[in-house]
Write a structure and sequence with these properties.
224 residues, alpha+beta, twelve-stranded antiparallel beta barrel, 20% helix
Length: 224
């Protein structure tokens, strides 16, 4: 993984700093709705007609308080947006990363005792970025095992005991730590949305995989 190469497309803070995921709800004829549906029309090459009459919820990724990326979920294959969650740049509009459920029998069951596995890839050329395997969250704290493109384990994201037990200080205590080589290299925290800190990642894990983990967390707890 070469950070310098990623800098051509990704904000620096997503690679070596801090950023936040927030839920946005748009609908009706509001300006925000028109902008959002305009983005969708561009991404889908106007393959569908969208009537923005019902509220739509989606994720925004903010860097230094500014909206920089959108996370869009699509369950049917369209021309320019793969099935799954796609993290898209908005200026200009283009998908940069896709998180896609692996269509194995194990993953389809999706129960609390069977891991769900996801492929993470660059949809522009289908280059694999890595894989995620999510465990737990019911009988024990949740854990997401992180693999590189060669299926080698490079780390994991672990829920803290405070988060699992419903701790009283969500703004102070991290909800999750990313661990690589026995060291905590990133953290995910916050009560309204999620904030992500990858400043100590140091190239141990592709930062896009940490972003993919945070996106899955937002989806799994019903924020989207």
């Amino acid at each position: 993984m070469i950070i310098d190469t990623l800098r051509r497309d990704w904000p620096e803070e997503l690679l070596t700093g801090r950023y936040a995921l927030r839920v946005r709800e748009v609908g009706g004829s509001s300006t925000a709705a028109k902008v959002f549906y305009g983005i969708l029309e561009v991404i889908t090459a106007e393959l569908i007609e969208i009537e923005p009459t019902e509220p739509t919820r989606y994720l925004e990724i903010h860097v230094k308080g500014q909206f920089r990326l959108a996370v869009l979920q699509r369950r049917e294959r369209w021309q320019n947006l793969p099935v799954g969650f796609s993290i898209c740049a908005v200026d200009p509009v283009r998908p940069l990363l896709t998180i896609q459920l692996q269509r194995s029998e194990q993953s389809r069951r999706g129960d609390r005792f069977t891991p769900a596995s996801y492929q993470v890839f660059d949809p522009r050329d289908n280059t694999p970025v890595g894989f995620l395997e999510r465990w737990g969250g019911f009988l024990h704290p949740a854990r997401t095992v992180i693999y590189d493109p060669g299926h080698r384990r490079v780390g994991h994201l672990a829920e803290t005991a405070v988060s699992w037990l419903g701790g009283p200080v969500p703004f102070i205590d991290p909800k999750y730590h990313v661990v690589a080589g026995g060291q905590r290299v990133a953290r995910v925290y916050g009560a309204v949305g999620l904030a992500v800190d990858v400043a100590r990642l140091g190239g141990r894990i592709d930062p896009r995989l940490v972003l993919a983990c945070a996106t899955q967390l937002m989806n799994s707890v019903g924020h989207q």
